[in-house]
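Ligand: uracil. Inputs:
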Amino acid sequence: MIPYQVIRAKRDGEELDEQIISAFISAYVDGEIPDYQMSAFLMSVYFKGMTAAETVALTKSYIVSGETMNFRDFDFPTSDKHSTGGVGDKISLVLAPLVASCGVGVPMISGRGLGHTGGTLDKLESIPNFSTNLTSQMCEDMLKKNKLFIAAQTGTMVPADKKIYALRDVTATVESIPLIVASIMSKKLAEGTGSLVLDVKFGNGAFMKNVEDARTLSKAMVDVGNLYGVPTVALLTNMNQPLGEYVGNSLEVRESIEYLRGDIRPQDLNEITMALGSVMLVLSGIANNISDGKKILEQKLESGKALEKFREFIIAQGGEPDVVDNVNILPASPIAREVFAPLDGYISGFDTLGIGMLGVEMGAGRTRIDDIIDPRVGFRFLAKTGDYVRKGEPVAIVFGSDIDQTINSVQKIAESIKYSAEPVEKPKNIEFIIKEKIESFDWNAKIE
Ligand code: URA
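Predicted complex:
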């Protein structure tokens, strides 16, 4: 394999075979191909794209660059979920114990906040003493014992993506479907799950702003998962407003516990969680169809089994389990200020990206890799798109750590909420389902 020839072939739009791709990536990881040649290759992929076969080959070459886990031959099914990221997206926190309580193993390697979006690991770490740094052996033991772990990628998993992602970041080659697909899917497939459901978000709080882009990305990811032999389904879900009520690390853990306890079940959080969970149960052979899946999940919520699974999971990962009974143990902000509706009318939308960025500014996320998260800060939204509110009624609460910053944030949150005098339709939470393996979806979404 001569790097120059590989770059030229891709530059000229030729299809590369699996061995060439594999040799090129492993030579780069081993330091035999310099950054300037990999940069030229990435830019060629950016402009010329890749076929499904090439994208699978690229994904495989990332996977084999490091340590992998494999839970596919366990005596129970395994299934995982990946979200492309949003604001207030705490679905993993409720979905993982809920699905695990149904007898499906959930091996979840998760991430930290990225840009304006929150990260599951950061949220979980607001539980006192909770650890997300697990070895592969610990992951395996926890999966066998509790059917669940949520952990950070180990240092030796998918090193090719780590090295190439850093290069893409500085060579304007992030926004390429095959490169995004290989990056995301390699990390998910390396964790050894038996099946996978993708929550691909679109809207003003997502990385994909419109449904079409989200659909293209979803199809490519579903193809790669299925061609790799892991049944994969994608749901395209709405991220034009914060998901659920709370945004912020500790606040989202609180909301997740309240959800599992049945204290509050925001409609969007509930609908998307039920949909993703039902797909996981169908893919795992636990439910025959989506309606059955929903019934099983509801029964686990009502019986308290999902909440108990969450408690077991916290204990296993070293956290303080009493948070399940007393959410006041979670870190709480010293300051709370309400945001009031400026007029009588309907909420017509949110600047979701702005809300996410404001959270980062207040300390809920990072602007530099070594920033320390403030788990306490964030927001609660008391009304959502389509709701009617009266002038002077509280529509949100800002939770801050500094009085001046909190007052400033109240103003910014007020500006991020849009109003209309005319009634506004509530947004559809799930737009499309992209599936290969399942024939029995029966909810009201267009099937690809
Ligand atoms: N997230 C990833 O892990 N990789 C990408 O390329 C984009 C988003």
